[in-house]
């Protein structure tokens, strides 16, 4: 069940269109408020979702070496301008006591965190912290690369520029060899 007030969004979109001088009764805009409200419902579906829930089921496997899922595509909305940013996430961890998550759960966690008004830095930290809390691995390393439309469409106007954020937890904070290993795997084609 969605907590989104679709009617309120429709009214707000109509007001914005009117405020910029558009004719909300013209053919191309007649259903725009409804379409935008449905889009926002989908794009912000992670607001009331706890990303830790994806790690509530763990498997036990005799594996205490690096696990990396890279190039996880995502999109989000900048909370400062409500325009999209998108890119890819790389999520790595080293299991402790054989506690591993289903690989798809790493991508689902990224998606849930990204589907809310957001900052890239917060996505990176929240994904890492969710994994650390729920799996208690030796360490977690998350890297996110994204292009921000607020830098492409307005302000700086530099299309193609990427912002990279990373978070190291546990062993990746202190062990240069482990950190360099995960970075080299992320950089592989």
Automatic annotation (TrEMBL):
Q: In which pathway does it act?
A: Cofactor biosynthesis; 7,8-dihydroneopterin triphosphate biosynthesis; 7,8-dihydroneopterin triphosphate from GTP: step 1/1
Which keywords has UniProt assigned to this entry? GTP-binding, Hydrolase, Metal-binding, Nucleotide-binding, One-carbon metabolism, Zinc
Supply the enzyme class, top level: hydrolase
Record's catalysed reaction(s): GTP + H2O = 7,8-dihydroneopterin 3'-triphosphate + formate + H(+)
Which GO MF terms does the UniProt record name? GTP binding; GTP cyclohydrolase I activity; zinc ion binding
Q: What EC number(s) has UniProt assigned to this enzyme? A: 3.5.4.16
> Which residues are in the GTP cyclohydrolase I domain?
9-186
Which stretches are transmembrane? none
A Pfam family reported for this protein in Swiss-Prot or TrEMBL: GTP_cyclohydroI
What the entry lists under InterPro entries is as follows:
GTP-CH-I_C/QueF, GTP-CH-I_N, GTP_CycHdrlase_I, GTP_CycHdrlase_I_CS, GTP_CycHdrlase_I_dom
| A GO-annotated cellular component | cytoplasm
Name the GO terms of the biological process aspect. Answer: one-carbon metabolic process; tetrahydrobiopterin biosynthetic process; tetrahydrofolate biosynthetic process
Specify which residues bind Zn(2+) according to the UniProt entry for this protein.
78, 81, 150
Source domain of life is Bacteria
Tell me the protein family, please. Belongs to the GTP cyclohydrolase I family.
List, alphabetically, the PANTHER family matched. GTP CYCLOHYDROLASE 1, GTP CYCLOHYDROLASE I
Known partners and oligomeric status: Homopolymer.
The record, for NCBIfam families, names:
folE (TIGR00063), PRK09347.1-2 (NF006825), PRK09347.1-3 (NF006826)
Write the protein's name.
GTP cyclohydrolase 1
Phylogenetic classification of the source organism: Bacteria, Bacillati, Bacillota, Bacilli, Bacillales
What is this protein's gene name? Answer: folE
């Amino acid at each position: 069940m969605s907590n989104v007030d679709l009617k309120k969004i429709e009214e707000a979109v109509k007001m914005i269109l009117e405020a910029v001088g558009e004719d909300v009764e013209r053919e191309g805009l007649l259903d725009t408020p409804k379409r935008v409200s449905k889009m926002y419902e989908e794009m912000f579906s992670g607001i009331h979702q706890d990303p830790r829930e994806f790690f509530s089921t763990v498997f036990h496997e005799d594996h205490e070496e690096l696990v990396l899922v890279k190039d996880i595509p995502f999109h989000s909305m900048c909370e400062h301008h409500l325009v999209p940013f998108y890119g890819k996430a790389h999520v790595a961890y080293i299991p402790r006591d054989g506690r591993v998550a289903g690989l798809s759960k790493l991508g689902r966690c990224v998606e849930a965190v990204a589907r809310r008004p957001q900052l890239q830095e917060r996505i990176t930290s929240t994904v890492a912290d969710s994994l650390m809390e729920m799996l208690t691995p030796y360490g977690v390393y998350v890297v996110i690369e994204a292009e921000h439309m607020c830098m492409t469409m307005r302000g700086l106007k530099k299309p193609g520029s990427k912002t990279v954020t990373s978070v190291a937890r546990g062993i990746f904070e202190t062990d240069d060899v482990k950190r360099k290993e995960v970075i080299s795997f992320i950089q592989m084609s």
